[in-house]
Structures
1.
Amino acid sequence: MNRQELMEDSKQDLRKTVKKHIPKDWLSSIRVAYRIVMEAVNDIKGTGVVNIVIITTMAAILTIFGLLFRFTLSLSTFANELGNVLEISVYLKSGTSPSIVQDRINTIKHVKTVTLKPKEESWASLKKDFELQGIENPLPDTLRVKVDKPENINSVFSQIKPISGVEDISYAKELAKNMQVLMHAVNTATIFVIIISATLTITIINNTIQLVIQSRKEEIEIMRLMGVSNWYIKIPLVMQGAFYGFVSAVIAILPLGWLQVPLHNMHKFFLIPMPVYAQNIVIMTLLIIGTIFGAIGSLLSIKKHLQV
């Protein structure tokens, strides 16, 4: 057995001896929890002015994500409302029973409603607008089909077209296409911002915790020799990273109030209701993401720079 192995055995024996004398009652647990929190607080104080730089940088990153996420929720509401307006017009052949075709369409997946507009009603409206007299009604019965989501309109359209009794079929194809492209672009941008935010946040926290570990290396080594458990060393560092993420998220919430006013005016102008609980959803998302990303950054740094 070499010298290094003897030292490791001595460390293990010392840890076991110390652990046997540690009380296991609830009061001891409270004291341990208090010491862990104070360790995290002392680490944050020891970082000094760097705390401001870290929190400011993270807050800027989370602000960009929060504003984009809030805008995306409103844009989704606009898309859904426009999707409700979008409808497929199904023109029936002369002599076809509208109720039979209507029942067939109702069985198609993603169809929300099917409304009949009789040719007599369409002709009466047309004659009223253009004062047409002495002309026989040339219009067909029309079924107006609404789908549950705009992205499903092409699928429903292709299934209605071959139904017996359908003369022609149409819908605002360009509008539906542009809506899908817009939503895809916004969703892609949101995912991209989340990835960038996560990468930058975790990197910043990782580097910060690395500095803390280096400054406390001797102290940590002494604690390990005394038999202090790994979680007692890890948790204060994880709490420090989570603290940075949480405080940054709180700061990032403030600009959301400024965005709320123009968004409210935009919804009011287009007579489209604001998405329910959108602001609360964004706030909770920022707090959760900021805290989790901060904790993950700490854990990665601990794993990389601290063998516990």
Note: The first strand starts at residue 88 and ends at 92.
2.
Amino acid sequence: MNDLNILHGTVVRPEGCFAGGVEVKDGTIVRVLREGEAPGPARKTVDAGNMLVFPGMIDSHVHIRGGRLEHREDFASGTMAAAAGGVTTVMEMPVTLPPASRPGDFINREKEVKARAYVDYALYGGAGADNLEEIPLLAQAGAVGYKTFLMPPVPGREKEFFGLCSQTQEILTQVMEQVAKTGLMLAVHSELNQYVEEETRLRMERGENGLKAFCRSRPVEAETEAVKWVIAAALKTGCRASICHVSTPEAAALIQEARAQGADIHGETCPQYLLFNEDTAERAGVFARMKPPLRDAGRMARLRELYREGALEITGSDHAPYLREEKLRNGQDIWRTFDGVPGLELSLPLLVTAAERGELTYESIARNTAENTARLFGLPQKGRIEEGRDADLVLVERLKLPQPLDIGTLFTKSRDSAELYRDLPLRCRVAAAYVRGRRVFADGAITGEQGWGKFVSPV
């Protein structure tokens, strides 16, 4: 007897959607049905009529942080937010106190997450000039990949960035040589400071302020020239690389060209770069400051086309929670606030809403939020609605009338700083989420348990 049958839904796969359902036993998908096929007996049956059945999202870029920074987010609140947003696996970045750049710190971090997680989780290790010899040891500890920045540490946050910075081409090549030995992916924050510092100084001297001034202070070249660094080092070392949070179609084109040359390099982007631009987000002020910044409307539209076409293969929220009072510590001074927005809970609803508007497709969302991520990071049990895979499933209800988003209902501790998303008209809602067959969220409430989340690592 099955533990769970989900019937009469629209099953979403990258190659197409079809009416049908899923049978689950012992946390695994045992059968995918087409409508009209007789299901086997089950202890529980869910009628998914009028709902989309998506594979659980694997969020490739999350900064929950926890530990000494848990006033902003801890692994309970963060993974509750994930469950509510249809994210069944979070891939947590190593930037925290202390960062996960040494094996001991990595192992302690895994223990912290394990005690609190409602959904499954993977952890990146840090890779930079400070910890070259420890990079291979992090793979042995179970790292899903590595993270490095091509910029110096954020002033005042140097301790969080130990083992995480590759500020010259030479150091980046050395880091990639070490990562290549492991066969894992190096996720790279690709911006070069030399293109940002002078622009920022000039705009501040002229008294410019506001979101658009910040966006223009970080020109497209800061991203594209950094991507060129990564491509050159990847071709030289054979290292696998992911360009994090791609914000420009120019960078996406460079990644495509590099793959054609034989580089094992891939592009990740975030919903905010597909759905917002420097004009539409300007009302949010400091609450829309992020790195890289939002771009102009034309670039946003082209990036969305590339995402739909599959040129950008991976999706992360770049969830970076800060409390409202932290973001407003210096009022609306765009130059003196924290970078990042809370997005973990909203990525899938925003993307499906874009599909309802005809801007994306269900298939591209399933491909870029789940299947590709599982394949590229070595998580074969995840990412697809298929027999033998983990029963990580999300039921998404399409709404007859758009409903404005009430950020006060979000599970993240940093809900009050989600101004970018306030009152956005959503055309869908996550009705239920299942992690390995167990329902962790349903009808606006968390139904799972802390500690259910499982540590996953590449095989």
Note: The chain has 13 helices and 17 strands.
